[in-house]
Each structure stands twice: as C-alpha cells, then as structure tokens.
Amino acid sequence: MTTNSILTIRAGRRALERIRTHGLDPADIEIIPGAAGGPKGLGIAGLDRAIFGEWLPRAPRTRHLVGASIGAWRFAAVCCNDSVNMLDEFAKGYTRQRYPPRPSRQFVSRSARTMLDELFKGREDEILASPDYRLHILTVRGRWPLTRDSAFGTPFGFGMAALANTLVARSSTMRASIRPSSPAAISRLPADRCASMRSIRTWCNFTGRT
Fold this sequence. Notes:
3-stranded parallel β-sheet; 3 strands; mainly alpha; globular
C-alpha cells in the first residue's frame, strides 16, 4: 500500500506475503466478517457497494458472510438478487430511523423490526438461495444480570463479561493458538445450532441494540 492510501491492510505473515506477491485477489476471498455497530456499518456503505457490486463478482465463487446485528443485515442485502440496490435501500432505511432522546429497548427493537420488514419481508427464500453467498448470523443471549436492562445489572453484567473475555483470552494464548472455524466446520454444525433466517424480525429481539 502507498503511504497516502486511505486503506490499511492488516494480515498474518502468509497472507501478507501472498498479497505482496500476487496482489489482493478477489479469488482468494472466501469468508467475510461483518461486525455489529450501526455507525461502522454505515460508514463503509460505499465500500460495500464497490466490493460486492464490482470487485468480488470478478471472481465468482461461494463465499461465507458471517455477521452480527447491522453486519448481518448488510449481508442479507448482499444476498438479494439486486444486491447493490438493496445496500442503498438499507443505508437509507437505517439513516431515516428517528428516536426520542432516551428510547426504551422495546422502542428500538420495534423500530428495527419495522425497518427489516420493509426491506426483507417476503425475500427470505431469495436470500437463503443466493448462488454466491452463504449467510451466517451471530446472535447472543444474555444470562443472569443481562437478562434485562437495569441501572446496576447491565453495567455489572457487561463488566463481568469483559473480565471473563480477558481471562479466557489470556488462558487460550498460553495453551494454544486459536484458529477460526472453516466453512466446512460451519456446515457440519447441527441444524439446531445454526441461525435461521426464516424470521428475520427475531434478529433484534434480544437486546434491542443495533
């Protein structure tokens, strides 16, 4: 990458060597993650259109899209037949949402469900039948103090989760390296452990956070 580039490539040793030797080839891309966090997803809307509308179609192959919250919704748009148009419609729908100063979890969930209905209702089979992409949706269920929002329980629960993540990461680093699951491993998961898109509206039911 040139020093004045607006893009930064971060890669492991072997991947970086391949990029330096062969360039960033769309044929090498098999798994694409999509993070939660509304502003992040909207901030790269133009990049999404370039990647999924122009770059990846140069090298057709089956690709796995793994997303949570807005990442999963972006990827649902990508799985539609008119993906670039749906990415545009999704960005417009997301930015047109309106909230009061302190919206309740129920209000946010209801607004998100309405938006998803307007975008994807009736297109579930089309998304699941995409010839180029396989959509994997990550969801989280809160336990004990995170089963409901409260002034004390919510920050306490997230603090416990952060502490647990730190301890597990340190322990895993000492024991062995952590490798991501391959698409083959994902496909072998039991059906009851795989997310279903038959009811897209359930994606935002738990936390109401997008």
